[in-house]
Design goal:
The complex is a heterodimer of chains A (324) and B (314). Chain A has helices at 46-53, 79-85, 97-100, 107-118, 124-134, 151-163, 181-198, 209-215, 233-238, 243-251, 314-323, and strands at 8-17, 20-30, 35-39, 61-69, 72-73, 90-93, 169-173, 201-206, 218-223, 226-232, 303-304, 310-311. By secondary structure, chain A is α/β, with parallel strands linked by helices. In chain A, helix 4 (107-118) packs across helix 5 and helix 5 packs across helix 6 (151-163). Chain B contains 13 helices and eleven strands. Classes of the chains: A alpha/beta (324), B alpha/beta (314).
């Protein structure tokens, strides 16, 4: 049986803004029914990577390598084809729903817009009401303006818009960042359920490992524009291999774990400099407590780190060697 | 003995009961986390503790004495209780150097003495060492974590006894967060500083707090030692909050929107969203949940009829 083309594939993807390297060679795949989380801090390149999928980056950006949607390189799509893909094939939920919604148009009209542009114009009202119902926003909100809704409701409206044209792939960039934990849990559950119902793919981007571990099957951790660890989400968060993932995991302690009680640990040193050419060294080496001399002189790429797992760290070789 | 105390404090904005009868003590050198969702009144309570807003009823006491009401007395008070805001970038003037930012409080409060030395000491306490390297820098030349250290140094320059920090790490990257929290613990160890940390983040409370106060709709609904409240929560609201943070338990996602402090429900204010009431666990006390407002806490405990009934019978 032929394996279907992945919904989304990054192949050696790079993004430069002049001398600034935002994304430095990423390989990732999302198939139908899969949920992939991308974790990283500000400047890690995770949002730039998301924007590259629908060619939403500013003109100053240079994209290298390939970004494939359903097997087709997005760089080769005409504007017409790209318009067809946006919303209908792939939809993006941005963070900060207050700013992404038009403040002077009613909610129903905004949800109807992608349907009218990409789908049929029959029974649009009915479709809008079904969408609002699916995302748990009361029907009376259809006639409301964005400022009349709560933050959680607005984020649900954004999700309703993203689902309006039945996309195969949903990309959500920090969809719950400004929301309270309870509302965040509601929105994430909703997103996961809707994606599962349709066997769509989900690429979820967040700085928060616990958000990703709770929602995604797989997790990729980005640092300085690269993937430094990749594997089953729960596994990566509970047993991180890369020293950077370990630091991220320690930042949000497991409540009840005596080791972290009254003992917060940070990561010393400065965030990576995107103009740094790196050359032959591990990008994380300057901040790494476990660094060895060769980390400063040899590039460190992703390598196998256990079952279905990869990490860009020389320590992996040593620990795997020890197990043999 | 309590260093800072909110005594049955209530604050109203028109129909909004932002803080609705809160009693909370902070002991010398103690770190208390005030946790809750947006709109629960935690930030309003913090501004009241800082003497920036006078309570409508109740009072705030420092060292056992009610806060002064006059301008000069309040200014003296605010030296002792310093504010650390959420977003250091917004709190710092982009055209002021680190030196100016830290010295500003000293000048406002007309603290004499050797200003350059005081500024250097404050920066060193905040972990910016050697201080001389940072004095001439502008906020734009610093990382987010360094900016937050500058803000904390500005507070430390006045030799306060309490810091009131509102989401001190919410705007920082995860890897930097631990460093700033470790700093708060170090300040407590080195300078005996107490802190009230306002946060929605229960992990933060686990990391640094001695005691945790959980607020819901203007009231403290659970209060106790951090390890107890966070590992054996007793109020249904605390339980739900913890369950969604910690993915491994059975999640209790509360339905509905965060409540509106302009329309506080009658009876127990949590009853319309209470999983114990909806699930039938609280059937025996349901009439009380719907009809009787639990007595506000004045110390460690849980403001919940179900818990009262359980402890009463057993």
């Amino acid at each position: 049986m032929a394996v279907a083309e992945p919904l989304l594939e990054f192949r050696g993807t790079t993004v430069h803004f002049g001398p600034v390297a935002a994304v430095r060679g990423v390989d990732l795949t999302v198939r139908a029914g899969e949920t992939l989380g991308v974790a990283g801090e500000s400047g890690s390149g995770k949002s730039t990577l998301a924007l590259s999928v629908l060619r939403l980056l500013p003109r100053t950006a240079t994209v290298g390598g390939q970004v494939l949607l359903g097997g087709a390189d997005v760089a080769g799509l005409s504007w017409g084809q790209l318009r067809a893909v946006r919303w209908a094939g792939t939809a993006i939920v941005f963070q900060g729903a207050m700013h992404a919604l038009n403040p002077v148009r009613r909610i129903a009209d905004q949800i109807a817009e992608p349907i009218l542009l990409h789908g049929s114009d029959r029974d649009v009202d009915g479709r809008v009401h079904r969408l609002l119902d699916q995302v748990g926003v009361p029907a009376r909100a259809a006639r409301a303006y964005p400022h009349e809704l709560s933050g959680g409701q607005r984020q649900r409206v954004m999700i309703a818009m993203a689902l309006a044209c039945d996309p195969d792939l949903v990309i959500a960039d920090e969809p719950t960042t400004a929301l309270d934990v309870m509302v965040q849990a509601q929105v994430l559950d909703l997103l996961a359920a809707l994606v599962a119902d349709r066997a769509a793919g989900l690429l979820l981007i967040s700085h928060d490992l616990s958000v990703l571990a709770g929602t995604c099957q797989r997790l990729a951790v980005m640092y300085a524009g690269r993937i430094v660890e990749h594997g089953p989400a729960r596994d990566v968060v509970d047993h991180p291999t890369h020293p950077y993932t370990q630091a991220l995991a320690a930042a949000h302690p497991k409540i009840g774990d005596p080791a972290s009680r009254l003992a917060p640990h940070g990561l010393p040193g400065d965030p990576p400099d995107p103009t740094d050419l790196l050359g032959l060294r591990c990008p994380f080496q300057p901040r790494c407590a476990a660094a060895r001399p060769d980390c400063a002189t040899a590039d460190v790429t992703l390598r196998p780190a256990g079952e279905h797992r990869q990490a860009a760290c020389v320590l992996v070789d040593r620990s795997l060697g020890a197990h043999r | 003995m309590s260093l800072l105390r909110a005594d049955d404090v209530a604050i109203r904005y028109g129909p909004v009961r932002a803080v609705d009868g809160v009693t909370l003590d902070v002991a010398e050198g103690e770190i208390v986390a005030l946790v809750g969702e947006s709109g629960c009144g935690k930030t309003t309570l913090a501004t009241t503790l800082l003497g920036l807003r006078r309570p409508d009823t109740g009072r705030v006491l420092f060292d056992g004495v009610p806060l002064p009401t006059g301008g000069r007395g309040l200014r003296r008070y605010r030296r002792q209780v310093q504010w650390v805001p959420q977003d250091p970038t917004g709190a710092l003037n982009p055209r002021h150097t680190v030196y100016q930012a830290v010295a500003e409080g000293l000048r406002v409060h007309r603290i004499g003495g050797d200003e350059p030395t005081q500024v250097r000491e404050a920066l060193a306490h905040a972990g910016l060492r050697p201080a001389d390297r940072y004095l001439a820098k502008l906020p734009g030349e610093l990382s987010g974590g360094q900016r937050q250290r500058v803000v904390i140094a500005g507070a430390l320059a006045l030799s306060p006894r309490v810091l009131v920090a509102d989401e001190p790490v919410a705007s920082l990257d995860a890897s930097v967060r631990g460093e700033i929290l470790a700093l708060l613990l170090r300040l407590r160890a080195d300078l005996g500083l107490a802190a009230v940390v306002v946060t929605h983040d229960l992990g933060l409370a686990w990391h640094i707090a001695d005691r945790v106060a959980v607020m819901y709709l203007g009231r403290i609904v659970e209060l106790g030692p951090a390890a107890d409240v966070l590992t054996a929560p007793r109020h249904p609201y605390t339980r739900a909050l913890l369950s969604v943070v910690d993915g491994s338990r059975d999640r209790v996602v509360l339905p509905g929107e965060p409540p509106d402090a302009a329309r506080v429900p009658g009876g127990c204010r949590f009853h319309p969203r209470c999983p114990a009431l909806a699930g039938g666990t609280a059937r025996a006390v349901a009439h009380r949940c719907r009809g009787v407002d639990p007595v506000p806490l004045t110390g460690a405990g849980v403001a919940c009829h179900l818990r009262e009934a359980l402890t009463g019978s057993g």
